[in-house]
Amino acid sequence: MALAASNTTRLWTLVAKEFWRKTRRRLRAGPVYRWRYSGRTPERVLIAPPDLRLADPQIALEIYYGRYPLSGHLVETGGKSPFQINVPNHGWQKTLHGFRWLRHMRAAGTELAAANARALVSDWIAMHGNNIAGIAWEPGTTAKRIIAWLQHSSVVLQGAEFPFYRAFLKSLAVQIRYLRSMAREMPDGKDRLRARIALAFAALSLPAPASALRGATRNLAEELNRQILADGGHISRNPMSVLEILADLLPLRQTYANQAETPPQALIGAIDRMLPALRFFRHQDGSLARFNGMGATIHDRIATILRHDDTAGAPLLHAPHSGYERLSMGGVTVIADTGLPPPVDVSNAAHAGCLAFELSSGRQHYIVNAGIDTYGAAEFRPLARATAAHSTATINDTSSARFSHSLRVNDLLGSPLIGGPQQVQCKRIDQKGVQGFIARHDGYVPRFGFLHERELKLSSNGNVLAGRDRFQRPGNAAIRNNGRDFITVRFHLHPDISLLQDEHDRLVLTADQADSWVFTSGEVVPEVEESIYFAGLGGPRRSRQIVLAFKASDVSEVHWQLTRTSIAGYPENN
């Protein structure tokens, strides 16, 4: 009861904060404040920062013909400006107003693409430039737009006449002043950091007094020191956040250098920590582990970022501040979530996946988490975030963390995580020829009175992953059969994995031209059930899961093992 009351109090505190933010934002967009965003118009863009995001000239051609493939959705405008039509998809609208798609026009490198970019920017200025409201002026979207307009100012201004040139710079200045006034009060997390990055870009790319650059640099450093953890992870614990932030920080570092300005030490330190962290979350096929909001990986994006990583050694195995562990040998990679939930303010994408793990061998994934469908229907998100969608254990089919599902709350906050493990203990148990850890969380103690402890050991040059899942009462009290001790340990299989039975009735995990693994368990007979993999590049895919189901009053500890029996189709010595 006390925990429930605490969670409720925390939730409504967040609601009050967000309501106040939105009220302040409406006030600052009104006529009383709007005069503050007027002022001197910059004379020119001094430098166009680089953009590391992938560009496709074909998309520029699609946009020219009125087809906008944004945020996983294709919208045809029928000859109208995209800013004139009402598209109900919120993600598509945010991407449209963020203008990152300008990079495709620059990649096309044609006068036609430049003219189209200029026409679309002109449309936005005419329709939204003087109306500070709606999705177009959400601070996070405004930050993306400022960065995109600066990065691709060369293509937007190519062949521009003076009236458009001045209108572009005037609108850019208004957006910068607006974002500067909003940044400090933005909700915690990636968007607020991006706002500070955008303001630093602006101070470097446009004529500005030295005090403006000093202020932007100081504020950026403060936000980086707060949001980027000591091991390079982000406070949201989402691997995708590391990738997204690096895609902005690396060009910003280059822009400081191009302008002969000294970047803040916080920026240099953050990049130096985040590049190894990105490699920590990376499987050998280049994809990122599916934890806490991570969906499908676009491999080329990661490769582009990691070209800037000068530390060519093996990834770290221990990320205690982010709350993850990694085991790696013999071409086998295991990544596990061993951390507390992120702060509630940045938990909109967080999952209830404590002690979940993923296993890949070579370039093939075998054991995975379901991940999320990044651009899919919002109603599937709660399923993807539940503990049952992860390769870990549930008790009574209940998640180890709680989420807010109130429609009134979600309209303001999304769906934050409002309850979960309060203590997660983790210890490495590496030995010669063995990598491993033991971790334990108390997420099920308040409701069911159980601690979940998991031990994973990778040995024999990566050929054996041995696991142990243990369920105990705090203080080692006796476990009674009270109908609330039903345990399900899940191992979700990647959709590309075939599941067979050998002559000994053991489950064999195979894939074309890849390793074969045998799953065995000691105390409980494994079962096979249907599953769903949300993180496919083409959307959700059907898959299967291996399940160990039992009562803790009958079996309090289960041992299981995955053994590699062949490598890429060739027999291996046993």
UniProtKB/TrEMBL annotation:
PANTHER family named in the record: HEPARIN-SULFATE LYASE (PTHR39210:SF1)
GO cellular component, one term: periplasmic space
Protein known as: Heparinase
Molecular function as annotated in GO: lyase activity
Pfam family, one: Hepar_II_III_C
Gene3D superfamilies xref list: 2.70.98.70, Chondroitin AC/alginate lyase
Compartments in which it is found: Periplasm
Residues annotated as signal peptide: none
Keyword annotations: Lyase, Periplasm, Signal
InterPro entries the UniProt entry points to: Chondroitin_lyas (IPR008929), Hepar_II_III_C (IPR012480)
Chain ranges of the Heparinase II/III-like C-terminal domain: 313-561
